[in-house]
Structure to design on (473 residues):
């Protein structure tokens, strides 16, 4: 049959559609409505509740620690998806209202508030508040539903090197880890470096991260590093050019060494000079082998990729006992390309960092009189035959302390004659009998404090005059 008038065709089509809708729709005649209100005067002061208000395009939680919060509303029922119609929303300065029309029945309403938290690898959207309510809607009802938003609670496990581990539960979301540490742990958090994890994921290294999931916080004594910009210096008749690096501000201290290695081997392990802190004296009586184990263990503690590899492994626990004599296997240690962890400086890096741009005999000049040297270094004339707390003398121009005196410092290189010609980032000879140490010590004479002075020991040797400092790329 041919329809001559299209007007009648559309009328017929509309009638058929209405008949089909009435037959198959689950929508009932006697509906009700409800409005979900988040915030407002009724719950603004409720325990752990926060209003969600419109701010620069975001629904923002009015708390300085949490920004850019948004929400998700879920209305669930056993009647079917077609039983809920969203009628729109209303936003004003005091409240945010969502309106729904529904078939009669029982409904579960859940409101979730989310925030965006900065972590090391970017951002993560995390749950900051949750509220729920069950309501029964009858035909013709018009109900306002107030949802009280409460913060979820999490557990944080604090693992502090050289201290008992502490687990703190029922921490409300949004509380800064700094606050949790200050309220619950008896330590000065500024002396520690931190790694924050959730499972195997590293969330960050700053205690300014708010609690937003179950986390593990691992801390160790802080290693203060100084950035040494790239440049060059003259060594004999050659120019040595270095890429920039980070070097520890101080020689490795006894407290840091013990926190990482579990023991303090130092000869001067007690009776510090008056007013000095024992744990802040440099560690000594450590071999070159001890130093590379320390570097890798510290790197692992701080979730850095370890620098040293022996027989293909960067885990010192697989290397066996630290040798007390010459060891061919350990002498074949290599540096892992691209690694980010701690390591000993090369001899060239050490001298460049020591000079800090100076071309004089010492980094403070050419003066060797007691009055001048006493300002910068511990040596036989002022040490009283002992080591001293790090950082008490004047630093060099880079801000590094005790680059001359107190204890000698192990370097990476084998001791050998310098190669001729200009060099770029040299790493020394490929083999030898002794590892280099630099810097002079507490019982040496003033000549040993010279920036260019060098010597070497068997890598297994230990003495009360030798320690080390560390470097990172």
């Amino acid at each position: 049959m041919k329809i001559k008038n299209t007007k009648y065709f559309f009328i017929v089509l509309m009638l058929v559609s209405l008949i089909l809708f009435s037959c198959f729709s689950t929508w009932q005649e006697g509906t009700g409505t409800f409005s979900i209100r988040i915030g407002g005067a009724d719950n603004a002061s409720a325990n752990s509740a926060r209003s969600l208000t419109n701010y620069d395009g975001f629904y923002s939680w009015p708390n300085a620690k949490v920004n850019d919060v948004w929400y998700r509303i879920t209305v669930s029922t056993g009647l079917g998806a077609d039983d809920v119609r969203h009628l729109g929303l209303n936003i004003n300065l005091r409240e945010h209202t969502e309106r729904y029309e529904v078939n009669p029945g029982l409904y579960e309403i859940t409101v979730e508030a989310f925030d965006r938290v900065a972590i090391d690898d970017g951002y993560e959207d995390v749950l900051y508040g949750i509220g729920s309510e069950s309501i029964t809607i009858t035909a013709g009802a018009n109900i306002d539903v107030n949802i009280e938003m409460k913060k979820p609670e999490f557990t944080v496990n604090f693992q502090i090197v050289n201290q008992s581990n502490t687990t703190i539960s029922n921490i409300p979301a949004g509380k800064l880890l700094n606050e949790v540490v200050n309220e619950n742990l008896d330590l000065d958090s500024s002396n520690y470096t931190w790694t924050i994890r959730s499972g195997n994921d590293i969330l960050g290294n700053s205690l300014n991260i708010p609690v937003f999931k179950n986390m593990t916080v691992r801390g160790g004594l802080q290693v203060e590093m100084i950035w040494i910009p790239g440049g060059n210096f003259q060594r004999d008749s050659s120019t040595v050019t270095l890429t920039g690096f980070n070097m520890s501000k101080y020689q490795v201290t006894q407290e840091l060494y013990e926190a990482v290695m579990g023991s303090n081997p130092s000869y001067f392990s007690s009776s510090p000079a008056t007013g000095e802190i024992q744990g802040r004296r440099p560690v000594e009586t450590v071999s070159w082998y001890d130093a590379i184990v320390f570097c890798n263990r510290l790197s692992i503690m701080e979730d850095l990729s370890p620098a040293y590899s022996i027989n293909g492994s960067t885990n010192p626990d697989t290397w066996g006992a630290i040798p007390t004599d010459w060891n061919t296997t350990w002498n074949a240690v290599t540096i892992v390309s691209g690694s980010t962890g701690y390591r000993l400086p090369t001899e060239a890096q050490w001298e460049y960092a020591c000079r800090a741009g100076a071309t004089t005999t010492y980094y403070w000049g050419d003066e060797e009189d007691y009055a001048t040297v006493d300002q910068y270094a511990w040596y036989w004339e002022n040490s009283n035959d002992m080591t001293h707390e790090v950082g008490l003398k004047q630093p060099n121009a880079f801000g590094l302390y005790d680059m001359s005196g107190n204890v000698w410092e192990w370097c990476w290189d084998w001791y050998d004659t310098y190669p001729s010609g200009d060099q770029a980032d040299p790493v020394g000879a490929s083999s030898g009998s002794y590892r280099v140490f630099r810097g002079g010590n507490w019982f040496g004479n003033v000549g040993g404090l010279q920036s260019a002075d060098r010597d070497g020991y068997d890598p297994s040797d230990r003495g009360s005059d030798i320690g080390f400092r560390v470097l990172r790329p």
The CA atoms of residues 286 and 376 lie 24 Å apart.
